[in-house]
Amino acid sequence: MGIVFIRRTQTRRSHDGKPYFSHRLVQSERVGNTVRQRTRLNLGRHFDIPQAQWPRLCARIDDLLTGQAPLVADGPPAVEKEARRIAGQLVVRGAQAGGAAAGPADVQPLDVDSLRLVRPRSVGVEQVGLWALEQLGLPALLADLGVNGALRAAAAGVIVGRFAHPASERATHRWLQERSGLGELLGVDFETVGAMQLYRASDALVKHRGAIETHLFDRAMGLFDLQPTVTLYDLTNTYFEGGAGGQPQAQRGHSKEKRSDCPLLTLGLMLDAGGFVRRSGVFAGNVREQRTPAGMLGALEAPAGALVVMDRGVATEACVQWLRDHGYRYLVVSRERHRQFDAEAAVSLRTRSNQTVHLHKVVSTDPDEVRLYCYSEERAKKERAIVERFAARFEAALTRLHEGLARPRAHKRLDQVWQRIGRLKTKHPRVASHYQIGVTADETGGKAVAVTWTRRPRDGSMATHPGVYCLRSSETDWDEDALWRTYTTLTDVEAVFRSLKSELGLRPIYHHKPRRADGRLFITVIAYQLVQVIRTRLREHGNAAGWTTLRRILEGQQRVTATFRRPDERTLHVRTATQAEPGQREIYDALGVDPHPGGVRKTLI
Helix H segments across 147-303? Predict the structure, then answer.
């Protein structure tokens, strides 16, 4: 390899002329009668190995590249870590040898017993993630928005890291440095990139949120030849770890993850029926779905005249009136409490899961609105079970109250017993109204001796009409099939939220700065868009697997360096990816992605 050493040189910044020092790994070689020096690697301005350790570092780099030293050295850990990083980068930047089957055969004599496999890095998910980034044109958009190359690389790191290895930002930083080959595919050494660079990338993404969301949605529509039709709107929330004192939007409220003990932050999403995000927004954690949809729909810039589909939790009468006043069409789940269904007037429909749903369309008293009463036997079974479970709990509590009256020290005054019955009704509101409860007094009329009850289900409730729900819509000309199938697109929103939370690491949040918390949620939304592009393309080829399954299949492919000794005492390093397994190859072929990420790199020392 020749003699290598580290050179410290002073240079000046181009924009203000301020001097600074940078470091380079330089190789000295004799070519004929001339000694030439060439830079092998730029070590940057933040190279922090003490100068006294530079000779040891260079010697260790030489040992690793020539394969003449043990795998574990006895030098300082920082020197060993830096030596392995630099040696790895030199191998990565070796001569490009093309694809696995490209070019003529390269036959060399090798010492098989000297084989070592080092620096394994995952590249399967990363390769597919970069494909999705290019399909959506995000790198080019960021360049047009004035985001520099270093921040674009960091943005790719945090976005791909979010769906490849969902974790905190610090954990993502470690993953990029220690386990992922994303930097190698991008031509970036993430081992020299500080965590602060990832946070700056997050800030840059949030700064251009509107332009990015518009671009990604329009590009997705064009990729799959989709026409924006339905606007799905819903909210979810995530929680902070810690007090989150510096977060003005971190408020306590109802947590959908049962973490009401923590400050919350709310994410609002507006999607098309294809499952792609039109717009996202971050709101306070104590926001109530039914109280603020008008403001949120305005903040999320719902397109004029769009058909808005909302679940029961959001669709208050005030919200529906707001949609009417602002020219929106709507299809919402009715909040009316009284259930009704006319089985004789209903039509039957088979669902995608091969279940039967019965639909009864009724023109409302309002000529501009139609109602669709729906009955599902599967839903009825579930609701019957719910009613019976709550009824059993309520009756068990009444039984304990009745039996307790026989104990000597029990509270038996009539007013006290009725108070306890009132508390039980408050504790079991779902079923208490279905019971007629009485208290029998003793001969004096002052003390209770028995509690009796009769179950009388209230008409028009879940107990008498299980499996029935009502939709209301402004689309009075639509038939039952169109109304119901459009409503079922709301399940796409639920699937999105499940993916964001379970597959893409939306929760929890560790940040103490508002813009960083916003950045975490927005990066997760972008990551979801990429996953949706990947899954939509795969579904076109008959692969409907979820992202967790796809990630598990892809993450098995690694890039490794195979090191051999040759008979002439030189060392050959071959950097290549493991051969794609059948499941990986199927995904690559469907996406049109190279099954051999990064090609082959050869370095002869």
Answer: 149-164, 169-178, 182-186, 195-207, 209-223, 293-299
